[in-house]
Amino acid sequence: MLGVAKDTICTALSQFAGIQQRLERVGTVAGVKIYNDFGHHPTAVRETLIALRSKYPKQRIWALYEPRSATSRRNIFQKEWPKAFESADAVLVAPVHRPEKAPADQLFSSQTLARDIQAAGKVGEHLDIETMVVFLKKHIHKGDIIVTFSNGPFGNIHKKLLTHLK
C-alpha cells in the first residue's frame, strides 16, 4: 500500500531486534529464559503474559513484579492486578518502591496481591529482591520462564538471577 517491496519488509522484520525493556530477553541460564518488561500497568502486564503463554504454552512462567511507578505504588488498580497475572504460574511481588511517595491511605499492598494470587491456586509470594533470587534458586527448573515487570532497574535482579541461577 505504501510502495515498499515485500522483500524489503521481510528483510527489515527479520533483522528487528525488538524494543529495549519490552519483553526483552536478557539472558538464559541453566535452561531458564529471563525476560525484562517495562510493564507497570495491569493491562500491559496481562497482554505481555498472554503473549509469553502463547509462545511457551507448556513452560512454567514466573512473573516478578515491582510496584514502582507513581500509579502502581498506589492502590488504584489493586483489584485489577490479580487478573493481570492469570497467565503466569507463579508471581513474586516485591515491596512497593519508595512507598513514602504515595499517601498512606492510597498505598498499594504487595502482600494483598500475593494473597490474591494464592487464593487463585497459584504460587504468590511477597518477597524482597534478594529473597526472590534465593527463592527462585530453590524452585526454578530447566525450561522455566522468568519475566520481570518494573519501570526501573528492579534492584538489578536480572544480573543477580543470571549470576545465582548457574
What percent of residues adopt helix (DSSP H or I)?
25-40%
**Share in β-strands:** 15-25%
Content-based structural category? alpha/beta
Stretches with pLDDT under 50, minimum 5 residues: none
- Our measurement of the CA-to-CA distance between the termini, rounded to an integer number of angstroms, reads 49 Å
Number of strands: 6
Gyration radius, to the nearest Å?
17 Å
Strand order in the largest sheet: 1-2-6-3-4-5
Given the C-alpha coordinates, what overall shape results?
globular
User: How confident overall, as mean pLDDT?
Assistant: 94
Output the keywords:
single chain; 166 residues; alpha/beta; 6-stranded mixed beta sheet; 6 helices
What does this structure look like?
With 166 residues, this protein is α/β, with parallel strands linked by helices. It has six helices and six strands. The chain has helices at 6-15, 42-55, 81-84, 110-119, 129-139, 157-164; strands spanning 24-29, 32-37, 61-65, 90-93, 123-126, 145-149. Strands 1-2-6-3-4-5 form a six-stranded mixed sheet, with helices on both faces. Strand 4, helix 4 (110-119) and strand 5 form a beta-alpha-beta unit. Helix 5 packs parallel to helix 6 (157-164). The model has no long low-confidence stretch (mean pLDDT 94).
